[in-house]
Amino acid sequence: MTGRPATREEKLTALALWVLAFVALWSTEAAVGFTRDESVYFAAAEGYSQWFRLLLHSPAQAFTDSAIVRAWDYNHEHPVLMKTLFGLSHLLFHDTLGVMRDATAFRLPAFAMAALVPALCFLLGSALYGRTAGWFAALSFLLVPRQYFNAELACFDMPVAAMWLLVVYCFWRALESTRWGIACGVAFGLAIATKHNALFMPFVLSPFALWRAWQASEGAPEARVRLARFVGLFAAVAVLYGLLVVFLGGPDAFQKKFLLLSPHTLFFVGLAVGSVVLLRDLKQVSLPVTRALVPLAAMAVLGPVLFYLHWPYLWHAPVDRTAWYLAFHATHNHYAWFYLGTLMRGPPFPLTYVVVKTALTVPTSLFAPMVTGFVALVGRALLSLGTRTREWVRMPTASEALVGVNAVTSILIISHPQVPHFGGVKHWFPSMPFLGILAGAAVARGCFALWEVLKARRPSVSPLAVTVPVFALLLLPALMYLVRVFPYGTAAYSELAGGLPGAATLGMQRQFWSSHVTGVLPWINAHAKPGARIYLHEVNGFSFRDYQRNGMLREDVRPVNSPFDADIVAYQYHQEFREHEFLTWQAFGTRTPVTGLYLDETPQVIVYQRPE
């Protein structure tokens, strides 16, 4: 498991891929509607940016807890790295310079983060499996319609996938340089400041770091002793924290007595200082072992520090407010979700949900190489365990195992029957870049095998003569479907599902997050009477306001909260909300819609108008 530096050509290619992805997202975002979550984040980001105005004009007041709570309390169930970037971007490009529309200015940092994924996929895929694999992983990622759709949004699901990939890349590169190990800790801090998914990363990466350190210390007793001391330091701190919980009378008492001047803080400082001292001592004995352990120390120390520093809301009450944040996600609400004809309202959820949902939403021409690449990796690992079969295959390297484990981590977490299942596929996005790299590996092997066969018949044949047609065969169907379904990404279903009509027949969630209402807004703008009362089902007040602020909905129309108060109803087709359509029939005295959004003849949004 060695981290190879990227060549100059690879760096330039990665930069070009980042620019290409960024420009593609920026140039197409105007057609994408505002999801319920996104409009909440718009409002939060705008409020946060006002705190920075206060910071410039009255720093002393800005640092008071009352001023911080007033600005940062809204939507404090999520960290604020991305919302802060959204707000500062909006403050600069919309409020100050006036060069962007309202929503674009908010979304710009999200494009920059999402564009990191193709670039990093290329760098990691090329290093492990060659340029062909890197190119396929990079080009295929944003061709998945649901991934492209989420990349357009000022939300956290695509940014945390990018940050997860960045942390793994830094961790892998740390084996060649301690600076990359420190960068891994910084990236981890930024990742947990993006979304709580990243809190699982130390559990994924620690076994690889310890295994690498153990291998590197083989035959070096002094290095083994210092490795044991490093592990012992972490174990001792963990035991001390556990004893504190017991002796203080449980988690609540532990939380209340976690103060700046308390044993809790002393243990953390001891961990930080002890790690630095032990690693400096270890560096004199074995640089490879040191490099393997630096990422663990950096994540353990820099992660919590950066998380605290990035979020002003934590500054005056870090323990209580962090505990509330963690408890919120540990006990997250369950939302109703339609899956294979069953309306799931609570656990236990089907164990196969995530795998089936992925198979039915990722274009089949991309899903097939993902499965092939992952099965090939697992198959090689299993065959390499047997004495008779070991000679048949090449044992997977630790780097390949790192990719394989990260390819399934998010999937396994969400697959747990007690974990809330909603939101389409966005909650396991961190797995998708790694599955894309494994898909690239499978495609690269296939291209090479085909080239070998053709070369035997025609020695002058170029590898590109094989790679280009294979890429076209696999990528063009996904691109064509992406264009066909855009901008209604949450309705995208693959060929395995039979497309949108097949998914509807299977009893799958047709769409969610309310963004599809953009398909009927032009009709409402053209036909609503002046001052009309509009009920946009599943569209919250913030989104209604954002459609008007961005010129997508007439400013004279007014939002109402019930079909009985409305002149026009746009009903978002959801199995769990069918009664809203029945109520509209009752309120309007008609079952005949005036228009709607139909994708491949599948109803998504249905519009009713009150008869005069």
Automatic annotation (TrEMBL):
Give a GO biological-process term: lipopolysaccharide biosynthetic process
Q: What keywords sit in the KW lines?
A: Cell membrane, Glycosyltransferase, Membrane, Transferase, Transmembrane, Transmembrane helix
Location of this chain's protein in the cell: Cell membrane
Annotated InterPro entries: LipidA_mod_glycosyltrf_83 (IPR050297), RgtA/B/C-like (IPR038731)
Transmembrane feature ranges: 110-129, 149-172, 184-210, 230-251, 258-280, 292-311, 360-383, 395-414, 434-454, 461-483
Q: Where is the Glycosyltransferase RgtA/B/C/D-like domain?
A: 78-215
Name the membrane topology term: Multi-pass membrane protein
Question: Primary place of residence?
Answer: membrane
Gene Ontology MF terms in the entry: pentosyltransferase activity
Annotated Gene Ontology cellular component terms: plasma membrane
> Which Pfam families does its entry note?
PMT_2
Q: What is this protein called?
A: Phospholipid carrier-dependent glycosyltransferase
**Which source organism?**
Corallococcus carmarthensis
